[in-house]
Design a protein that fits this description.
Layout lengths: L13 E5 L7 E7 L2 E10 L13 E8 L11 H4 L4 H15 L4 H4 L3 E10 L4 H23 L11 E9 L2 E4 L3 H4 L4 E8 L4 E8 L6 H26 L1
Helix pairs in contact: 2-4, 4-6
């Protein structure tokens, strides 16, 4: 039934390659099917002015798509002089999601910026960015711990995200572009590796959905995130 031939509960193949760049404190390339995102984490010994002197750190994110990440070339946002609304919304989501899994007191007064650059897009770019972004963050924190700059680990369970929706009347997990573009209901689920919810974005795209369907989507998301968390732990080990 699915264009890819996958079962309703079947994720796309996931790979996370670390050590992908030379300079960043943490970096990985995450591939979720044909969606590929480069994630890097940069550590700075400063915090935004509103946090200065408070003893807490900060995690933020930036997101962008390369011009040929999609089937036709997109104009670089820098050439337009401003970021689009979609870009701003996604990078705020990534930042919120990653911060939810950080003990900012344990991080100390430093900022970690996670940059997520979409190399190739085939649906679920924001979910892949969150999932890969956590691995880059984990690697950067590991470096701080090894150097003795942190006395306790500020990260707990992995933070990952997966899309779920109603496609051709059936709840499915991890939508690729053909499914995403035709789904009657589309959602993104951000969760911890042990199943706690961080954020849910759900909307009907031409049809309503029931409470039972929502529960089924939550179950699919939980199973999907558990698989992603396993891949995250393996990559960051």
């Amino acid at each position: 039934m699915r264009p890819s031939g996958r079962d309703l509960s079947e994720m796309r193949p996931v790979s996370i390659e670390t050590g992908i760049t030379k300079h960043a404190e943490g970096a990985c390339m995450i591939r979720v099917g044909d969606t590929h995102v480069l994630c890097t984490a940069s550590v700075e010994e400063r915090v935004p002015p509103f946090l200065k002197g408070g003893g807490q750190g900060w995690v933020t994110a930036e997101y962008g798509m390369l011009p040929r990440a999609t089937t036709t070339r997109m104009r670089r946002e820098a050439s337009a002089g401003k970021q689009g609304g979609r870009t701003v919304e996604i990078q705020r989501l990534i930042g919120r999601s990653l911060r939810a899994g950080v003990d900012r007191q344990a991080l100390g007064e430093r900022q970690i910026t996670v940059d997520c650059d979409v190399i190739q897009a085939d649906g679920g770019t924001r979910c892949a960015a969150i999932t890969g972004g956590w691995v880059a963050l984990r690697l950067a924190v590991n470096r701080l711990l090894k150097a003795g700059d942190l006395t306790s680990d500020p990260l707990g369970e992995p933070v990952a995200a997966v899309s779920c929706g109603i496609y051709a009347g059936q709840p499915v997990v991890d939508l690729d572009y053909p499914e995403d573009s035709e789904a009657g209901v589309d959602g993104n689920f951000v969760m911890t590796g042990d199943g706690r919810l961080i954020e849910v974005q759900m909307s009907a795209e031409g049809q309503t959905f029931s409470r039972d369907q929502m529960t089924r989507l939550l179950d699919l998301a939980g199973d999907g995130v558990a698989q992603l968390a396993e891949a995250q732990r393996a990559a960051a080990a």
